Amino acid sequence: MRSTDRADGAPNKTLILIHGRGFKPAQPELEGLWLDALRAGLARDSPDLLPAFESCNRAFVYYGDETGQVLRAAGRHYDAALDLADLKSTLASLSALSTTKQFRREHYERLPGKTPLKEFFADIGAPTLAVLGLKDRAIGRFLPELLDYWRTDGGSVRAVDARLRDVVADAMQRGDDVLLVSHCIGSVLAYNALWTLSRGGFRDGRCANGKVGVWLTLGAPLGDETVKHRLDGAGADRPSRYPNNVVSWVNVAAEDDYVCHDERLANDYRGMLEERSISSIEDVSVYNMALRYGRSNPHSALGYLIHPRVTQVLRRWLSAIPPPHP
Q1: In 3-state terms, what secondary structure has residue 216?
Q2: Residue 7 falls within a domain, yes or no?
C-alpha cells in the first residue's frame, strides 16, 4: 500500500479490493488485472481522474491460495498459465468496448454461449426460480469455498477474516476515505469483517467508530436466504444484527449471474436503513460483457470492474461527490 499527503487537508483515499471464488492466478497477476480493469473504465469514461486513481492508497486482499486448496481437495484441476492467458484476453476484449452503449442488452444478447439463469437452476435440480436459498447442495457444487468458510472446525478460507480486518482497520485508524470493493464470496467475508469491526470485537474496540465511505459489492450472494442466515450477527437482535460502519452501499448485479440470483439487497437489508446505521443502499442491474474461454461469463470480476456503472461509483468517490439516494 502507498500513502499520499493531501495538501487540502482532506482524508487520504484508500481503495480496498477483495476477490471471490474459484482458482486464481498469483496475487501480482490478479491484482494487476483488477487495477487495469478499473483503469480501463476510467480511461473510457473519465480519463481526467486517472491521476487521482494512481495516487490513492490501494490494498488487494488475496486468498487464492486458500480457495485453490479447497478446490484441489475436491478433485478439481487448475492450469494457471492457461487461466491467466484467458483472463488477459478477457480484459483486452472488454477494454476494446469504447462506449457505454456497448454494455447494453442488445450487445449482451449476442454474446456466444450465453446461459440464462433458469438453466442454472435446472442444472442443480431446483423446482422453480422462486427458490428461497441455494442450500448446501448447490453451494457445495458451485461455491465449495463458501462451505469451507462456514466449517465449524475452521476451514482454510476462514483465515482470510483476520487479513481483511487488518487492512480495513488500518485504513479506519488512519481516518482514510475508504472504498471497499468485494466480488462474489469476498462480499460475505467483507460483511463479516465490517460487522466485527463495528461491534468493537477487534483491536480492543479502537475501530468501533471507523467508517467505510462506500462499499461496492459485485455479484454478491448476500441476498440468498442460506447465506443471510449464516452471516455474523444474523441471530442478534436489532440494532446489533447489522454492521453500522458503512456510509453508503452500492450493490451491482449482472443479468444471469447465478451467484447473485437474488440481485436486490436493499430489501434484504432495509433494517440497516431503519436503524439509521447506513445512509443508502443502492441496487444496480447491469449486463456483464465478459467472455471466458469464448463463452459468456456474467459472473466475471473483470466484466464487473470495467462496467460503466462501476466506473461511475469510482468516479464519484475519486471526485468526492456524494452518491445519490436510490
Answers
A1: strand
A2: no
Q: Domain of 106?
A: 13-318
pLDDT in tens, 85-106: 999 999 999 999 999 999 999 9
Q: Give the integer Cα–Cα distance in Å for 260 and 70.
A: 22
Helices (H), the chain: 27-45, 50-55, 64-73, 80-95, 105-108, 117-123, 135-142, 144-149, 160-174, 186-198, 225-228, 270-274, 301-305, 308-318
Q: If you search the block for the grid coordinates 474496540, which residue do you land on?
A: 205
- Beta partners for 292? 295
User: Could you report the per-residue pLDDT of 219-230, keeping only the tens digit for each?
Assistant: 999 998 889 999
- For 231, list phi and psi in degrees, rounded to 5: -70, 150
Which pLDDT band holds residue 50 (cuts at 50, 70, 90)?
Answer: very high
As given in the structure block, the three cell numbers for residue 161 are 477474516
CATH number at residue 210: 3.40.50.1820
Structural domain includes residue 294: yes
Residues in the chain: 326
Quote the distance between the C-alpha of residue 136 and its chain's center. Answer: 22
Nearest to 199 by CA among 227, 171, 169: 169
* Residue 303 resides in a domain: yes
Q: CB-hemisphere CA count at 13 Å for 197?
A: 27
DSSP code of residue 249: E
Residue 148, amino acid: D
Phi first, then psi: give them for residue 59, nearest 5 degrees: -140, 130
Q: What is the largest CA-CA distance in the chain?
A: 59
The mean of the pLDDT values for the chain is: 89
As for how many domains the chain has, the answer is 1
Better pLDDT: 239 or 17 = 17
3 state SS for 270-316: HHHHHCCCCCEEEEEEECCCCEECCEECCCCHHHHHCCHHHHHHHHH
Q: Is residue 43 part of a domain?
A: yes
The reported pLDDT for the residue numbered 238 is: 84
| Cα dihedral 299, 305, 311, 314 sign | positive
Distance, in Å, from the CA atom of 11 to the CA atom of 197, rounded to the nearest integer, reads 20
